[in-house]
């Protein structure tokens, strides 16, 4: 755990200044003024333990740490923050929910608050305050955390996953512009493999990457786990078509994708083994920040996810909502911190620190400077608006969150693409597990 202090804040000043963030006294002055007028006054002696996902862009972490330190100084709230990998966030949040101890806030993935709807502190007042002030929430972000009219958490941001590719390789494959539909994308990947510049996408239990691109393929064919009434409908001709398309695509991939986690494609791309994948902007940022990878950075571009036969975007982007547990001793401090995170003086600059890795979920941030700071950032600005909630066309809630957390769609595709099961068997396994959840 890290106990953030004023010294921590000032040490982060250089990185933050480069990102255009408030730093040092300016940030502290804002934080103190905000605390004086905030609708939520932190309880005397408040101490918050916060778990968050482990950062992929160091400057984002610097900006976040500075924000935490400023909040601590302004409100007197002790802030203990620690990071966990994507894969470990949900299990550790579940332990806290089941034991009623260990955490005050958990900043996690997809529909995390929906896993513990009776254990969270309702955030209706925070959502209303921020939504009215900053142009309203994007549709998928709001659905991610809402149960009926109640906000189980706050959708802080979206980690956009888009096509990351080496332009020299796609040009050589005969595609001067990135394909915008599924047939074109498959044709490009086939040509890239023939040139020994392969694509690669995770087929293992990669919480962000595998869930993201495989739901995109499923939904792009008009196939869904459940319908609008939450009836299981995975066993459909559309699912078979999605499996067949994915298998053909997987045959163009670099070896080893069946065991990939969320960091595997980053490593393969940066090492020069991989030429096209779906990822956040972190690969490009890492290349830009490494003097030995200047040529790689210049050759790296981004594109929107191609559109499938349904004719419209069908993207599962990585929502990162935050929740406060209702057993916290400091509900006011919890709400104050969450609201503080998304105030313009913090959030606009935090987006710049994240360098495109985080995408806003409040419409007022459409014009944030980060989206024009580098032309290669612009694609990621659309992540929150093009996404569907993790439930697809079904009801976002505990059941949909469980299906995502248990990798049911990922395993269905992986079983078929690796030859472990035929289409009927892969779909049947997924259907049986979905029916156990949606009973």
From TrEMBL:
<keyword id="KW-0813">Transport</keyword>
<dbReference type="InterPro" id="IPR006059">
    <property type="entry name" value="SBP"/>
</dbReference>
<dbReference type="InterPro" id="IPR006311">
    <property type="entry name" value="TAT_signal"/>
</dbReference>
<keyword id="KW-0574">Periplasm</keyword>
<keyword id="KW-0732">Signal</keyword>
<comment type="similarity">
    <text>Belongs to the bacterial solute-binding protein 1 family.</text>
</comment>
<dbReference type="InterPro" id="IPR050490">
    <property type="entry name" value="Bact_solute-bd_prot1"/>
</dbReference>
<dbReference type="Pfam" id="PF13416">
    <property type="entry name" value="SBP_bac_8"/>
</dbReference>
<dbReference type="GO" id="GO:0042597">
    <property type="term" value="C:periplasmic space"/>
</dbReference>
<protein>
    <submittedName>
        <fullName>Carbohydrate ABC transporter substrate-binding protein, CUT1 family</fullName>
    </submittedName>
</protein>
């Amino acid at each position: 755990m890290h106990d953030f202090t004023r010294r921590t804040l000032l040490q982060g000043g250089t990185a933050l200044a480069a990102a255009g963030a408030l730093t040092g006294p300016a940030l502290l002055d804002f934080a103190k003024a905000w605390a004086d007028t905030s609708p939520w006054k932190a309880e005397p002696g408040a101490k918050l333990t916060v778990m968050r996902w482990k950062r992929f862009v160091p400057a984002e972490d610097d900006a976040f740490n500075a924000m935490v330190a400023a909040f601590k100084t302004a409100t007197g709230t002790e802030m203990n923050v620690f990071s966990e990998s994507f894969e470990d966030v949900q299990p550790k949040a579940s332990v806290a929910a089941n034991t009623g101890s260990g955490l005050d806030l958990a900043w996690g993935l997809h529909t995390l608050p929906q896993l513990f709807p009776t254990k969270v502190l309702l955030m209706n007042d925070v959502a209303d305050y921020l939504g009215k002030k900053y142009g309203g929430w994007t549709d998928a972000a709001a659905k991610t955390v809402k149960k009926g009219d109640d906000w189980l958490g706050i959708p802080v941001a979206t980690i956009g996953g888009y096509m990351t590719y080496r332009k020299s390789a796609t040009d050589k494959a005969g595609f001067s512009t990135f394909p915008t539909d599924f047939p074109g994308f498959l044709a490009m990947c086939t040509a890239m493999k023939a040139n020994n510049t392969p694509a690669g996408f995770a087929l293992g239990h990669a919480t962000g990457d595998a869930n993201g691109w495989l739901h995109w393929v499923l939904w792009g064919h008009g196939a869904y786990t459940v319908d609008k009434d939450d009836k299981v409908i995975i066993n459909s001709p559309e699912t078979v078509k999605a499996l067949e398309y994915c298998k053909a695509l997987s045959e163009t991939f670099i070896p080893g994708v069946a065991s990939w986690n969320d960091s595997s494609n980053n490593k393969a791309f940066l090492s020069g083994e991989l030429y096209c994948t779906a990822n956040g902007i972190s690969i490009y940022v890492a290349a830009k920040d490494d003097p030995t990878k200047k040529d790689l950075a210049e050759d790296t571009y981004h594109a929107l996810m191609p559109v499938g036969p349904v004719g419209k975007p069908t993207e599962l982007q990585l929502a990162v909502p935050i929740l406060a547990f209702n057993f916290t001793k400091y509900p006011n401090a919890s709400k104050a911190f969450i609201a503080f995170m998304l105030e313009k003086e913090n959030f606009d600059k935090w987006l710049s620190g994240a360098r495109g890795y985080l995408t806003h979920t409040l419409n007022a941030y459409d014009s944030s400077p980060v989206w024009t700071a580098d032309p290669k950032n612009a694609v990621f600005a659309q992540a929150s608006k093009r996404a569907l909630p993790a439930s697809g066309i079904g009801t976002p809630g505990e059941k949909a969150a469980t299906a995502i957390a248990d990798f049911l769609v990922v395993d269905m595709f992986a079983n078929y693409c690796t030859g472990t099961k035929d289409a009927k068997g892969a779909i049947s396994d997924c259907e049986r597990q979905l029916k156990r959840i949606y009973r």
